[in-house]
Amino acid sequence: MNYCSNCGHTISLLVPEGDDRERYCCDNCGSIHYFNPRIIVGCLPIWEDKILLCKRGIEPRLGFWTLPAGFMELGETTEQGAIRETWEESRAEVDIERLHGIYNIPHIDQVYFIYLAKMRSPNFEVTPESSKIELLGIEDIPWDNLAFRVMSEALQHYIEDKPAAFTEVHHAVIGPRK
Amino acid sequence: MNYCSNCGHTISLLVPEGDDRERYCCDNCGSIHYFNPRIIVGCLPIWEDKILLCKRGIEPRLGFWTLPAGFMELGETTEQGAIRETWEESRAEVDIERLHGIYNIPHIDQVYFIYLAKMRSPNFEVTPESSKIELLGIEDIPWDNLAFRVMSEALQHYIEDKPAAFTEVHHAVIGPRK
Predict the structure, then answer these.
(1) Is B78–A168 a contact, with Cβ atoms under 8 angstroms apart?
(2) Which residue has the higher pLDDT, A167 or A128?
């Protein structure tokens, strides 16, 4: 941030009165601009005993596999966002079963909501965001070609849940890559 | 938003190429500015059979009662944020037991994470944000003077959980006030 989005004046990094950390403060109109972590919503879509995975058709991580997920938009709930992102990336229609996991990635200021979801049909389509889409059994998950570690965590948790019919929400904090 | 925070130029509300909704786009440098829902993190702090509630010492809802909660900051996890907010608002030190509820409030673009937490001691202090703090039994919850409906939901869920020792995460969508 270089300029005040309210009045267009220059800004300074200052600790506002009564606050305890630096914020972008306008030198002219006094606006304080806060930045907060962003929410990413997505699904683990299931058809029979298979999981829907998307091969990324866009950067970042072009060509790597992911569960359908993306930034939560204004005016929607986390569930609505997860259904929307699944549709946008794969044209799969899903009904949410339950919240599967919450994944914090504090070094990039992201919080993931991954929902376990049932596909309404085995239908899906390649989209501008996904160059290939497949329904894969657990044994066929491309572990070495997953786009993001959060997806690997979510899939691992799904596999661990299967024998126990586990229903607690998983949590993990994902740190920077070593 | 009136000006580009990157270059200070005027902006326009446009649907960017490949997108499906209006964003603030800079007329000069081409920056696209996204706005997303914000996360509020807080605790339901328990000492023995009592709940810690704070009387708000600041707007909004000055003088009404709330669980300690506030905006998640950059660089922290939801759990860390909930512990921090509890400390900032009440000087109570807590250990998180589990995620109690996720509450979506789409009309104001907020998602709440409320954690069930054990207080390390019955100690707390009035703070700049809380004019009064009390440990209250269920029978003493000031239902008519709670600051936010999300707090009323979270407390109601806690009461419903008690007899069953329920451990699933609660969910609710809170709409505009009628």
Answers:
(1) no
(2) A128
